[in-house]
Write a structure and sequence with these properties.
Blueprint: E1 10-16, E2 21-27, E3 35-42, E4 45-46, E5 53-54, E6 61-62, E7 68-71, E8 76-83, E9 88-96, E10 101-111, E11 120-124, E12 127-134, E13 140-148, E14 154-156, E15 160-166, E16 180-185, E17 190-196, E18 203-207
Length: 208
């Protein structure tokens, strides 16, 4: 099913399990604002999306695959983006199931310095965890916790280094992207991160 007939260079996907809605978060290019389209999911069918909503303004903001998630305690879809100024931005919104629209969007900053392209986000109850390459610190791997309220307020924790060397940012076929993957283990309350090392291109994994 075609969701949007428009140039789309960056995209992320989140599923709202409370409303059976899927959020397609996208940007036309690295100079564009972050937008979202929302559609209902019924069995194996995706319905027609509602009206597209622009989530950010000012400097362009780009999502990537794996950078959007639904956080259940706040009832918000939360997206980790990279601004055209290279800083890390967090944006969240609630889904209105009546007209498949996004409302009450708020933005914040999870990293004021430069980050690499390829930030990843996972949700724990009442907070999200964002992994990224810290371009301002030799592209070292960092993870930061962000608490999110129902009103869209953020409390950003202190970033923790999970890898002390540079993360790979140009590993073909993912050009100009940080190779990071992340999952949440609910039983142990820990994040599992996989990534590529810049010097060896070897696959690495770590539990934090």
């Amino acid at each position: 099913k075609e969701i949007v007939n428009d140039n789309t260079a960056f995209i992320a996907l989140a599923y709202d399990s409370d409303n059976d809605r899927v959020a397609f978060v996208r940007a036309n290019n690295s100079s564009a604002d972050c937008k979202v389209l929302i559609a209902q999911v019924t069995d194996t069918t995706i319905g027609d999306p509602g009206t597209e909503v622009t989530l950010t303004s000012g400097a362009a903001s780009s999502p990537v695959r794996g950078s959007a998630v639904y956080e259940r305690s706040s009832g918000r879809v939360v997206v980790a983006c990279r601004k055209s100024t290279d800083s890390g931005e967090i944006v969240s919104f609630v889904i209105d199931p009546d007209d498949n629209s996004a409302g009450s969007a708020t933005t914040g900053t999870f990293e004021s310095g430069a980050i690499g392209v390829g930030q990843q986000i996972i949700a724990e109850y009442d907070k999200v965890h964002i992994a990224y390459a810290d371009d301002g610190d030799s592209d070292k791997g960092k993870i930061v916790d962000v608490a999110v309220t129902a009103a869209g307020a953020y409390t950003v924790g202190t970033p923790v280094e999970f890898y002390g060397s540079a993360l790979e940012q140009n590993n073909s076929p993912v050009n100009s992207a940080v190779d990071i993957g992340m999952a949440w283990d609910e039983d142990t309350k820990r994040a599992v991160i996989v990534f590529s090392d810049d010097s060896t291109l070897g696959g690495q994994s770590i539990v934090v």
